[in-house]
Amino acid sequence: MNHELSTMNCMRLLIIICLTWLTTNVMTAQETKQNNNTCKSSSSIAGDEKSNSEYIYRMMQQNRTRGLATMSSKPLIVFPLRIGFIQHTGDKGDTRQFAISRTVDILNEAFSAANIEFYIAQIDVIYSDLKIGDLSLGAYELYDQFSKEHDLDDMITLYLFDYDGQLCEESGGGVSCGRTGGFSYILSNRTSNIVLSKFDLEDYKVVVHEFGHFFGLYHTFERDQFGKELISGANCAKSGDMICDTPADPGPVYEVYVNYSKCQMVGYKDLDEQVNYAPLINNYMSYYKPCFMKSYSFTPQQLEVIRTAAESDLRTRFHE
Ligand SMILES: [Zn+2]
């Protein structure tokens, strides 16, 4: 009897352990689908990204043919920034404004290699009940409408939005979490702004990443606009992010292959290519987490795109 009881108890315990394990697994499975700290930029929503990018690549080609000056000898380009601080209509006062100068410092550190500098020229408080997650709903209609209402023509605005108070939701026995860090159209004339979550004001990557988009950079794993880049890099100039010193990147779905201590993707290849992927894990335009003891960076050719975009008539109206 005693033995039977303890067997029953044992089985009960096992069932409970199994259930717990299953629940944990469901939760893990759901969590891996999350887009934490994600940039919501899409490569073709504004409509003019492709033609503008092609224009920039032609400019770069011409500069190279003419043997124009290297980056370091080029004059400093200064962009005044307007900060659009989004405040909810009912809210009084603000607790996070102190961090804005740090945000611009982070930006300047990254863009100094292209001899580009930003400074805060104007701060406007904009009353709106929109949160950052609302802007990308649908086909970015709310974002377009907001931009039309609030953008200035001749100054880049950095909008600072609140994020959803509740970043995780429980549903069906699992938890689903998500957070948008920011976004910007890629080298588009449709808007004159970059959007950032107040959560990421002091993040070392998000603000730089979004300004990277504004100045013509695609994600390193981009494949929608110009097609897939081969791991071999054979088609690097005309596919992926159109940049040859950023190796092919399979994207954040394959993050499990990343060793963050080595800052390398290990052992992942496509079925049709016998070469391992070796994306730049610590690149500003990738989607990976920070590598241990290694800072983020742009490649020389990414800096060339940024610089060329800044010099082009797509962006000169924003210069000082
Ligand atoms: Zn992005």
Notes on the protein architecture:
- The protein has 320 residues and is α/β, with parallel strands linked by helices.
- The chain is built from seven helices and ten strands.
- The protein has helices spanning 2-32, 49-66, 100-111, 132-135, 141-150, 206-214, 300-311, and strands at residues 38-39, 77-87, 116-127, 156-161, 168-171, 174-177, 180-183, 193-197, 258-259, 264-265.
- The strands form three sheets. The protein has a six-stranded mixed β-sheet with strand order 1-7-8-4-2-3. A two-stranded antiparallel sheet has the order 5-6.
- A hairpin with a 2-residue loop joins β5 and β6.
- Mean pLDDT is 87; it is low at 1-8 and 10-33.
- Bound molecules: zinc ion.
Set out the fold topology:
Blueprint: H1 2-32, E1 38-39, H2 49-66, E2 77-87, H3 100-111, E3 116-127, H4 132-135, H5 141-150, E4 156-161, E5 168-171, E6 174-177, E7 180-183, E8 193-197, H6 206-214, E9 258-259, E10 264-265, H7 300-311
Parallel strand pairs: 1-7, 2-3, 2-4, 4-8
Antiparallel strand pairs: 5-6, 7-8, 9-10
Helix pairs in contact: 2-7
The structure holds zinc ion (ZN).
Zinc ion (ZN) is lined by residues 39, 41, 209, 213, 219.
Strand order of the largest sheet: 1-7-8-4-2-3
- Elements, N to C (H/E): HEHEHEHHEEEEEHEEH
Q: Tell me the structural class.
A: alpha/beta
Low-confidence stretches: 1-8, 10-33
Please give the alpha-carbon distance between the first and last residues: 88 Å
Mean pLDDT value:
87
Please give the radius of gyration in angstroms: 23 Å
Global shape:
globular
